[in-house]
Amino acid sequence: MANTPQAKKRIRRNQRRAEINGARVSRIRTFVKKVEAALAAGDKPAATEALAAVQPELARGVARGVLHRNTASRKFSRLTKRLSALA
Description:
Layout: H1 5-41, H2 44-64, H3 69-85
Protein name: Small ribosomal subunit protein bS20
Family: Belongs to the bacterial ribosomal protein bS20 family.
Function: Binds directly to 16S ribosomal RNA.
């Protein structure tokens, strides 16, 4: 267990950051699920609109450090590829 005041503060801070980062990742997942649902339904206009909303969310996740740059790029690329195959 932490003994020093600084170590105790780090534990408190890390718990708070974990909550915030978890919420950010959850938000990104929700946006991605909206695109996947539209793709599964075969609704191209809705999927296009949802994909346009996903891109800045993924970029924000990268900027905030909750997603790796390549992970975000891969997710967006795969969703775009699935959307173009829908035509």
